Amino acid sequence: MADAAEIQGPSASPARRRLRRAGALLAGAPLLAGLLQLTVAEPAQAAPADSVSVALDSLTPSAPTEDDTLTVSGTVINNGRQSVTGAHVGLRVGPLLNTRSAIDGIAQHPDDLRGGAGDELGGKYTQKFSKLIPGVAEHFSISVPVDELDLGKDGVYSFGVSVSGKTSARPWDQMLGIERTFLPWQSSEADTKSRTTVMWPLISSVHMTARTGAGERQTPVFQDDELAKEIAPGGRLAQMMDLGRDLDVTWVIDPDLLAAVDAMANGYRLQQPDGTSKAGSRENQDVAKQWLAGLQKAVADKEVVALPFADPDLASLAHTGTSVTGSLSHLKDATDVAALTVKTVLHVTPTTDFAWPVDGAVDPSIIKVATSAGADRVIARSDSLRESAGLPYTPSAARPIGGGTTAVVADARMSTAFEGDLTKADTSTLAVQQFLAQSLEANVQKDEQRSFVVAPQRTPTASQAQAMATAVKALQDGNWSQPETLTGAANAKPDPDATTRIPSTSAYPSSLRKQELPRSAFEQIADTQDKLDNFQVILTDQSRVVTPFGRAINRGMSTSWRAQAAKADGFRTDVLGYLDNLGGQVKLIDKSETKLSGRSATIPVTVQNNLVQPVGHLYLRLSSTQPTRLKIAGKAYDEQPVEVSGGHSQSVKFTTSANANGRATVLAQLYTEDGQEYGDPVSFDVKVTEVTPTVMLVIGGGVLLLVLAGFRMYTQRKRAAARQAEEEGPDEAEADSGDEAGNPDDAGDRLPEESGPPAGTAGPDQPGDPAPDTAPESTDPSGTGERVDR
């Protein structure tokens, strides 16, 4: 047209043409700016600069029927900079959703203004606001009879709450915000109802250590008091117990949780940073008793599935643990003790046929490990065991996968509906409506009864548990589903068209593999088990050690350690360190150098037992590293059995014999009955200083010289006395004789010559003579009772 206009008129001058083009550009600038504004604004329709956010805090009933009144409440907030005038909140019923994927699409973008929102109900079923001030929340609540919604065929409808109004920049009535969710509509009892199993998990993290008190009760020691917070009124586990009591669910329980709460109820201690422990709170003991009493009532007449003790990480075992000898035996042990623990604490007999890998992710190695301890039913998830036949419906959960094993495939959409932050009423409401929508949509896919399983996250938060309970209650009160036990779902007739092919190991999610326990963790566990086996042999009461450490080993491979590598390593290191400390309480006392004076002697070696219980089944071996110089009981080594009472020491004596002088090293080592070394050896030197014949001759010569000197002194004294008597004369001699006769007390001062030699010097022929002062020299070994100088 521009070209034709130009042909019709006379040619304009170049200057005029330039002026006209400039005018055209100026005239078109507003239009171009408007087009640009529209182009830029269109992608931002989900959240324009002057948008208003809508939070749907409550929708009741969640699955209405014909005679119900639907009440919707929530808040709106003006996120723009300008006030919104003439605003109102209205309800919008969208189209019937025919696929589960359509539900997914709306759930991913609930506030998208470009989505199919449906027509506003209008009229009296709106709430008006004269002005919405920026940043100020306004509450709304709208009630409408269900028959006013004009719902048609049974199924899932898109349902939205929108806010409309005007701004100074856009002065016309427009939709400024929306929150879309779902309205499950089953007007009457469905001809075919699906069977739905809801797993209700009671699982916590690791709380108990391997440490126990020294008394008969062996009071358990806890890492912290976090468990008390979880089971206290309002705590996560307290709410799980209270909420589950009124639901028809299958309880899935970690026996370690029961063992910990039971231990707390009977008195416990708390580990301190310095390695000591202090008594736990009496108030927490009462809380534990109340929680157990409540749980016993809650699970009565309900199905209880017991996981292996401490909920071992099956995927970690399969991918890294099986390469370490003995790892699988711990899974068997954890499975064996599970049923006994649940029955003892809850007084119900649980089912132990089920294995539950993390997030239901499976591969051939996980299936093999999961079934190795006796479980023949593995709980998988549909996002792992995916359908490959292009079925237009969701098949039943049970899938025979060979070898007598059944994979119970939980529905991924319903199982993951309650993940994320649900502390806000808005997100919780959306989660409930999405769960119900997926359940109803799965039911209407086929006019044949099927069994579905819901396997939520292992440790739901309190807010997640509340949302789950709301959804399950609405489902069980609804018209399209009926509850079923997990065993019932596993025994249900499988769909012949459903996939039974286990995904390959390479298909296992990398995000989950990064969280697995490393090989070093299982090596550390194996080391702990080896030391425990060696230690328990010497104990008279093995249960005092085997039970707490056996359970601690199970806890060391718990699923709860995922994404907590440092804490997991710290726990296992503490267990091993404590075991080393206990084992070190039975030990040999160090010896200094021992001197052996003589050719043979007895050497004592002391064994100390600082445990509270007696030890035995030990042998102490004393070995000579130089048997040519020093022998133990006539050979290179000797060993003797050892038994030591609790808190005492015992000396074990070994006979030794020396063949030559000098220093010989001796090694003392404890052994268990099966020949395993126990504890550290003790090494000490023995210095042999034997008394030789030459030395004996020297000693004998010295004694002879002493005797001769004494005899000489005696003869000299006798001669001196005789000379004195001759000089005094006969008269003085007689006088002296008279004095001696009259004073018997003075007798013996001098011995007359004829009286003979002094006592003790008589000849060898006289009987009763004392033995000589020195024994004759002998080259025979000295007696074995000779003491050893140290």
CATH topology title of the largest domain: TIM Barrel
Distance between the termini: 125 Å
User: Averaging pLDDT over every residue, what do you get?
Assistant: 85
The number of domains: 3
Radius of gyration: 48 Å
Strand fraction: 25-35%
Basic shape: elongated
From the helix content, strand content and strand pairing, which structural class follows?
A: alpha/beta
**Percent helix range:** 25-40%
CATH class of the largest domain: Alpha Beta
Q: How many distinct beta strands?
A: 30
Number of DSSP helical runs: 19
Question: What would you say the CATH architecture of the largest domain is?
Answer: Alpha-Beta Barrel
Sheet of most strands: 5 strands, antiparallel
Poorly predicted regions are 1-47, 730-790
Region (Disordered): 481-509, 722-790
Signal peptide: 1-46
Keywords: Membrane, Signal, Transmembrane, Transmembrane helix
Biased composition (Low complexity): 756-776
